[in-house]
Specification:
Rossmann fold; 7-stranded parallel beta sheet; single chain; alpha/beta; 4 domains
Length: about 750
C-alpha cells in the first residue's frame, strides 16, 4: 500500500489484438480516499484489488438491489465510473401502482366446499374475496402468491423495530420498512414494490395471514377467500390506520362492511332506536345507547360484551333488546340466558317487572324437562351453566335466536366444559354480560371472544405470543394499546362515575387492625412453616406446578388473620410452642366487628357483611347471637334464597351476612348503605362486584365500605396485588397504560410470606 514505485501491467487486447504493457505511476492518496469511499458503502477489499459485499441474506441483498434500481448513482456521485454487465439490464422491474380489492362473494360457497355456519352463530354467513395486484409496465400482476414473502419482510422489520423501541408507551407506530421491498421471481429477476402504499395492508394482514396455512395453495389463486370475521378484522385495521377514506375503491361491493366498520370505530353514528312499547321502564340515556348498540350488533350478526359497571342495568338493557326483537317480529326462536343459579330468580323478577309480555321460563331442577318439551311456547329461557353439560345432548339440537351469557366470566377458562359447550350452541346471535371481562389474565378475554366470534383474536397460541406474554410478563403497553383497539369496538363499558352522576358517593375505608400477642405469635409460627412449604414446592416443581400447595399454604395465613379457630390444625407448627392452635381464641378482627357493628346498627345503618370463609360467617353468627343482634345469612347451601333476601330488603332485618361466592353477584340490594369486607380476596373485581350489590342504580344514600385488614400481614400484601390486577383491566378498558411489570412472580410469593410487620 505504501509502495510509490511505478507498476508495470499487461493489458489483454480486444478481439485478438496484441496485448500492451503499461507503466502506471500510483497516486496513493487518491487510492486511499477511494478505498475509504468504497468501505463506506460496506464493501471489503481483497489482495487482488477487488471490493466485495455478500449477496446471500435478505439484509445483504437489500443494498445491492437499491444500488441497481438507482443505476448505481450513489457510486457515481462518489466519483466512480460505473459500467454494468449486459445481463443486469431489466433485472429489476418497477411497480408503478398498487391495487387492492375487497369484494363481497357471490354464489353458493357450498360448491367450493365452504360451509357458512350461520346456525352456530359464527359470522361466516357472508364471505369476501381479497385481491392484491401491482402494475408493471401497464400490466396488472397478481401479488397474492407473494403475500407470505411480503409478510416475512414485515415481520422481520416489525421485530427489529419492537426490540429497539425506547418508549413502549408511545402510540402504535407504523412499521419501519425500507422505501422498497424486492420480490424474487422464478426467472431470477426482482420486482421492486414501494412500501408506503402497501404499509397499511401489510400491517393489517400480518396477524391474519400468519394463522393461515401457506402451503395449501390458497395463496396461489387470484384472490383470497376471507370469512366475514377476517374481513371485519382487516377493515377495522385499515380504518385504524387512517390510510383510506370511505369512498376509496378498495371497498367496492362491500359498502355494508365499510359502514359497519365505521360505526364500530365510532366514526359513524349508530342507527337510531326507540325503546320498545311494552317496556315498563324509562331508559336512561346511556341505557338507550346500550339498546342501540345491541340492536346494531344483531343487525350485523356480530357478538359483543356488555361490560357496564355493576348496577347500571345490564339486565334491563338486555331485556329491552329481546322485547324489541319480539315487537319487530324477529323473535321466531327462543332466547337462552345462561346464568349462575344465584341470578336465575333475579332474571325472572326483572322480566316480570319490566317486560311482562315476554314469556319467560326458568329451567332448573327436576321440572326442567317439562319446560324443555315446550320451548316453542317461550320467548326467553333462563338456565344455569351446569345444565350445559348435564343436558348436553338436548342443548346441541336446539336452535336459539340469541344466547346470553350472564356473568360471562363463568367461561373464562377456554378449556372448561362450560366454555366448550357454550361454543357448541346453535344460535344466530351471541352476547356476553360481565362487569369484569378480565379478572386475572388476558386469556379470559380470549375465551369470551372465542365464544362470541371464533377466530377474531386468532388462535390461543397466537394470542399468547402477540399479547399475553408481552403484556402480562413484559409490561408492553404498546401491545396493550393494540389489543384495546381491536376489542373495544365489541365491548360497551360505562362506569358509574361516567353515566350515573346522580348516584350517591361511595366512600371506602381500610380498617388496619393490629393482631393481639397470641394471634400474632400464631401468625408468625404459621408463616414460618408456610414459607418452608412454599419454597420446597417451588424448588421441586416450579411455580406453575405448585399452585395447589401454594394456595393451601396462603389460605392458612389468611385464616389466622380472620380468626385462629378457622385453622384446620390442632397444634402450632412451631415445635417450641406447646399451646394448641385452637386454644388461641383471640381474634382482633372479630373484636373490632363486635365493637363497631352495634354502633352502625344503632345509627340505623343497613349492613352487608361479606366473607370468603363460610366458617367465619358461622363464628360471627355465634357472636351476634350472644349480643342478641338479628341477621340473615346467604351461602351456597342456603335454601329459599328469595325469602332470605326479602327479609333484608323489606327492612325486617338490618344485617345481611353473605358468602362472597354465593352473593357477590346477582343481588340487587340498594336498601343497604354499608358494606363490610371481613377479609380481602385476591381478585379486586370480585370484591367490587360484592360492593356493587349496594352501590347501584336505585341507591339514594351514600355507601360506606369498610375493608378489614390485619396490619403487617399477608392481607396488606393482597391489597397491593389487587392494585396490580386492577391495572391490567384498567389498561384494557381505558387510557391508563402505567403497568410495566409481570402480573405474578415468585417474588410476589416472597412478599406475601414476609414476616409480620415486614
Amino acid at each position: 500500500m505504501n509502495d510509490y514505485n511505478p507498476v508495470l501491467v499487461e493489458t489483454a487486447g480486444a478481439d485478438g489484438a496484441p496485448s500492451h504493457r503499461l507503466l502506471l505511476h500510483r497516486d496513493l492518496d487518491t487510492e486511499h480516499a477511494a478505498h475509504h469511499r468504497l468501505h463506506a458503502f460496506g464493501l471489503s477489499g481483497n489482495s487482488h484489488g477487488q471490493f466485495l459485499r455478500s449477496f446471500i441474506s435478505e439484509a445483504q441483498q437489500q443494498p445491492w438491489l437499491d444500488w441497481l434500481a438507482d443505476d448505481f448513482n450513489a457510486f457515481r456521485a462518489a466519483g466512480f465510473e460505473v459500467s454494468l454487465a449486459p445481463e443486469l439490464a431489466g433485472w429489476i422491474a418497477r411497480a408503478d401502482g398498487f391495487e387492492a380489492r375487497l369484494e363481497a362473494e357471490a354464489g353458493d360457497l357450498a360448491d367450493q366446499g365452504v360451509q357458512a355456519r350461520d346456525d352456530k352463530g359464527l359470522i361466516d354467513a357472508q364471505w369476501f374475496r381479497l385481491s392484491l395486484g401491482i402494475n408493471i409496465a401497464g400490466e396488472r400482476r397478481n401479488i397474492l402468491p407473494l403475500l407470505p414473502e411480503l409478510l416475512a419482510h414485515v415481520a422481520t422489520a416489525a421485530t427489529s423495530r419492537h426490540s429497539d423501541a425506547p418508549d413502549r408507551r408511545a402510540p402504535r407506530a407504523t412499521l419501519q420498512l425500507p422505501p422498497f421491498i424486492y420480490l424474487h421471481q422464478p426467472d431470477g429477476r426482482y420486482w421492486q414494490l414501494p412500501c408506503e402504499p402497501l404499509r397499511p395492508w401489510l400491517q393489517a394482514l400480518l396477524d391474519l395471514v400468519a394463522e393461515r396455512d401457506t402451503s395449501n395453495g390458497e395463496f396461489a389463486k387470484s384472490s383470497l377467500l376471507m370469512s366475514r370475521t377476517e374481513a371485519l378484522r382487516l377493515g377495522a385495521e385499515l380504518h385504524a390506520s387512517d390510510a383510506f377514506q370511505p369512498g376509496d375503491p378498495i371497498w367496492q361491493g362491500t359498502e355494508n362492511l365499510r359502514e359497519m366498520v365505521g360505526q364500530l370505530a365510532g366514526r359513524c353514528a349508530l342507527p337510531d332506536v326507540v325503546a320498545p312499547e311494552g317496556l315498563n321502564a324509562t331508559l336512561r340515556p346511556y341505557q338507550l345507547q346500550g339498546l342501540r348498540w345491541l340492536q346494531f350488533l344483531r343487525a350485523n350478526r356480530l357478538g359483543g360484551i356488555l361490560a357496564d359497571d355493576m348496577g347500571l342495568g345490564k339486565t334491563l338493557q338486555t331485556l329491552a333488546h329481546i322485547l324489541a326483537e319480539k315487537e319487530a317480529g324477529r323473535l321466531d326462536r327462543p332466547v337462552l340466558i345462561l346464568a349462575p343459579v344465584s341470578l336465575m330468580g333475579n332474571w325472572r323478577r326483572e322480566a316480570s317487572r319490566f317486560t311482562p309480555s315476554l314469556r319467560v321460563a326458568v329451567m332448573h331442577g327436576h321440572k326442567r324437562h317439562r319446560v324443555a318439551a315446550r320451548l316453542g311456547e317461550r320467548d326467553v329461557v333462563v338456565a344455569p351453566y351446569s345444565l350445559l353439560q348435564r343436558d348436553r345432548v338436548h342443548w346441541q339440537h336446539q336452535a336459539w335466536q340469541l344466547v346470553v351469557l350472564d356473568e360471562a366470566q363463568n367461561i373464562k377458562n377456554a378449556n372448561s366444559q362450560a366454555a366448550r359447550n357454550a361454543a357448541d350452541l346453535k344460535t344466530r346471535h351471541r352476547l356476553c354480560l360481565s362487569g369484569t371481562p378480565i379478572e386475572n389474565h388476558l386469556g379470559e378475554l380470549w375465551s369470551l371472544f372465542n365464544f362470541l366470534m371464533p377466530g377474531f383474536l386468532g388462535s390461543t397460541a397466537r394470542f399468547k405470543a402477540l399479547y399475553r406474554t408481552p403484556i402480562e410478563q413484559q409490561g408492553d403497553d404498546q401491545r396493550l394499546a393494540e389489543l384495546r383497539r381491536r376489542v373495544t369496538p365489541f365491548m360497551l363499558r360505562r362506569t358509574k362515575r361516567e353515566v350515573a352522576t346522580d348516584l350517591p358517593d361511595k366512600q371506602e375505608s381500610v380498617a388496619s387492625i393490629v393482631l393481639g400477642d397470641s394471634q400474632a405469635d400464631l401468625y408468625e409460627a404459621i408463616r414460618l412453616s408456610t414459607e418452608n412449604t412454599v419454597r420446597e414446592a417451588l424448588a421441586n416443581k416450579g411455580l406453575a406446578q405448585s399452585q395447589v400447595q401454594v394456595m393451601e399454604a396462603l389460605v392458612r395465613l389468611r385464616q389466622v388473620c380472620c380468626d385462629p379457630r378457622l385453622l384446620p390444625v390442632t397444634r402450632l407448627p412451631d415445635a417450641s410452642t406447646t399451646e394448641p392452635a385452637d386454644a388461641v381464641a383471640a381474634s382482633a378482627k372479630l373484636d373490632w366487628l363486635m365493637q363497631t357493628l352495634p354502633e352502625l346498627l344503632a345509627e340505623g345503618r343497613r349492613v352487608l357483611l361479606f366473607s370468603q370463609f363460610t366458617g367465619m360467617l358461622e363464628l360471627i353468627e355465634d357472636a351476634l347471637r350472644a349480643r342478641r343482634i338479628v341477621w340473615v345469612k346467604l351461602t351456597g347451601q342456603s335454601q329459599n334464597r328469595d325469602t332470605i333476601i326479602e327479609k333484608f330488603t323489606s327492612g325486617a332485618v338490618p344485617l345481611f351476612l353473605i358468602s362472597l361466592k354465593a352473593g357477590g353477584v346477582g343481588l340487587n340490594l340498594p336498601q343497604a348503605d354499608t358494606v363490610i369486607h371481613y377479609d380481602p380476596w385476591w381478585n379486586p373485581a370480585v370484591q367490587n362486584q360484592a360492593t356493587d350489590r349496594a352501590h347501584r342504580i336505585g341507591q339514594t344514600q351514600p355507601v360506606m365500605v369498610y375493608k378489614l385488614v390485619a396490619q403487617g400481614t399477608i392481607e396488606e400484601r393482597i391489597l397491593a396485588l389487587q392494585d396490580r390486577k386492577s391495572s391490567l383491566a384498567d389498561g384494557l378498558y381505558g387510557d391508563a397504560l402505567a403497568r410495566s411489570e409481570p402480573m405474578l412472580t415468585e417474588d410476589d410469593l416472597s412478599a406475601l410470606l414476609e414476616p409480620l410487620g415486614g
